[in-house]
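COMPLEX REQUEST
Ligand: adenosine-5'-diphosphate
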Amino acid sequence: MTAVEVEQLRKEYGQVAAVDDLSFTIEEGEVFALLGPNGAGKTTTVEILEGHRRRTTGRVRVLGQDPQTGGREFRERIGIVLQEAGFDEDFSVRELVRLHRGLYPRSLGVDEVIDQVGLSDKRDARIKTLSGGQRRRLDLALGLVGAPELLFLDEPTTGFDPSARRRAWDLVEGLRTLGTTVVLTTHYMDEAEHLADRVAIVVAGRLVALGTPAELAAGQQDAVVSFRLPAQVAVSDLPALDGVPVADGLAWELTTARPTAVLHTLTGWALEKGLEMPALSVRRPSLEDVYLRLVGGPTGDDESAATPASAGDSVRSGR
Ligand SMILES: Nc1ncnc2c1ncn2[C@@H]1O[C@H](COP(=O)(O)OP(=O)(O)O)[C@@H](O)[C@H]1O
Ligand SMILES: [Mg+2]
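STATUS: Structure written out below.
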């Protein structure tokens, strides 16, 4: 059965279209990711699906209902983890989770959910004493406690340390085995690649790609040749290649439809000079490569993330 249907969805804020002609469907039991840079329209889309914002035009069905007119019965079937939620800071973790559980007819155990998100040792702590990552985990607990059929996660792991992130991923994978449909937004490529059955890449309110992570990466025919420069060699010393090498941290990467020719030229030149090309490799493009190409390179408007891509970019501008 189809859990979510979106047809030609459009949302305008004044003159600006934050969501522009978006169409997709999500099957029951699927983990579906909306991936895109800040300002792409992910939160707007998700909040329209939750019934928290009104669309300008288009057709939306969530669990067979229009979220705009769905009442209590609709809200009881969905779970929501907002990008930024505000609570009464004086509640303890346990009190707040219990309060939320009371809103749902079907629900999980309070302590069980607190354990699942890894907050057992903070059970009785006041919310105002939690760190940013702990708050996000509490958000997750609140989304889960009503045993939703459909769970919305808006940037669920932003601000998590790597181990908290892994735990959150395990949690989402656990939901998949329970048959819960999950709609997730993220600007982390690895998160989408790891968790999602299908990924919709959204840029400036428009869908630019949709498919499984493998399909999106395979859709690119090009290969990426990567290497470091031998000592005393500048990139301008290299022979002419079918493609332009671009700095990525210490490595140089060249995207080409003719990797065989590029390797032949490069290795032939290196052998002739008696040089070894450090860290030479050829790979198929990853989802990250596809994403960066679609959003227009590593200089996206994503100020929040110190990603390898933006780090590489600053190295490049330093040369
Ligand atoms: N309530 C609002 N009023 C006016 N503009 C908004 C509002 N909410 C979001 N926007 C604008 O809509 C665009 C999409 O925002 P958003 O959906 O939050 O993107 P994302 O979640 O992908 O970062 C942005 O340009 C943002 O500034
Ligand atoms: Mg957002």
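REMARKS: The radius of gyration is 23 Å. Residues 13, 18, 36, 38-44 surround adenosine-5'-diphosphate (ligand 1) (CB under 6 Å).
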